[in-house]
Design a protein that fits this description.
The chain has 303 residues and is of the alpha/beta class. Strands 3-2-1-4-5-10-9-6-7-8 form a ten-stranded mixed beta sheet, with helices on both faces. The longest helix is centred in the last third of the chain and has 28 residues. The protein is elongated, with a radius of gyration of 21 Å. The two termini are 18 Å apart.
């Protein structure tokens, strides 16, 4: 039986736009065995062009609150005028939530919260874990933890093992090693520009073999260490050590094994806030068909 150190309260910010994707997120929250003192703040943001729909948004929020309260959850609502991503992040900075929950269909969604728009901005700029839930709603039965062995993955693991998931679920673990190095050097332009990297030395077959063997050893050790940690919490995991493009391998595993939730760690944005450093998590969010939990490096609190 898995146990959680976080038993007494949980602070959740729910972005609710009334779409089927938000409804899926609400159903997921209602199905989770959340601690009794959990506080959920449901936020709806309407833009100036949507001012005439103020009453409809208010009614949507009231319906959400009633649904959550019916499940015994402590729910409050916020209706704000502005731009969704900006207001979600502003309220998160006030509430310091343990989790932000957003419903989103996918990259090319035309209704609800768009990936590449609101949801992507929240994932990139907010400093807290973000759960992106896709419609139609599917109960969490299979969870995949994707690790690269970094400190960000370690924080995601710490968050994962204490999250109040349903008692019965199947844990999966994957680590993707980089593709095999090429035996030939990089082609360099002439004359070389200052920003062009120096060509890599020619790699003999035995050198490539040694590199791959070392990567295999480190990958196996990582898988064994995390598998052991999961077993100690009552969550034995099916594990896979893969090689190739990380996002492609992870998304393929999701489809192959019917994964309902992927958990990944992410650095977030660089100091200039111009590029998401966790490009693997970005691709998983965009192209996988399941719910994704992104645990940010700057999360001030773990479950």
């Amino acid at each position: 039986m898995r146990t959680s150190r976080f038993q007494h309260s949980l602070n959740i910010l729910l972005a609710d736009d009334g779409s089927p994707h938000s409804q899926a997120a609400i159903r997921m929250l209602c199905d989770l065995p959340l601690p009794t003192e959990t506080r959920i703040t449901a936020l709806t943001v309407f833009t100036p062009l949507q001012s005439s729909d103020h009453a409809r948004f208010r009614q949507t929020l009231e319906t959400t609150r009633a649904c959550l309260q019916e499940k015994g959850l402590n729910a409050s609502t916020e209706l704000q005028l502005g731009y969704p991503a900006e207001k979600i992040i502003e309220l998160a900075e006030q509430l310091h939530p343990d989790l932000i929950v957003i419903g989103a269909k996918g990259l090319r969604a035309t209704l609800g919260i768009l990936l590449g728009g609101v949801a992507q901005q929240v994932v990139e700029y907010a400093d807290w874990p973000v759960l992106i839930v896709r419609a139609p709603y599917k109960p969490i039965q299979r969870i995949l933890f994707a690790t690269d062995g970094s400190e960000y993955s370690q924080r995601a693991l710490e968050y994962l093992v204490d999250f109040p998931f349903p008692d019965q679920f199947e844990m999966h673990l994957i680590h993707v090693m980089p593709p095999a190095p090429e035996p030939y050097p990089l082609i360099q332009a002439w004359p070389p520009a200052p920003e062009i990297v120096q060509p890599a030395p020619f790699l003999r077959p035995e050198e490539i073999e040694n590199i791959l063997a070392e990567q295999d050893l480190r990958g196996t050790e990582l898988i064994q260490r995390i598998t052991g940690a999961l077993e100690e919490t009552g969550n034995p995991a099916h594990s896979r050590l893969a090689r190739g493009d990380a996002a492609t391998e992870i998304i393929g595993y999701v489809k192959e094994n019917g994964i309902d939730l992927v958990v990944v760690g992410s650095r977030g944005l660089s100091q200039v806030k111009s590029w998401l450093l966790g490009s693997v998590s970005r691709k998983i969010i965009h192209y996988s068909d399941c719910t994704v939990l992104v645990v940010k490096s700057g999360a001030s609190r773990h479950l």
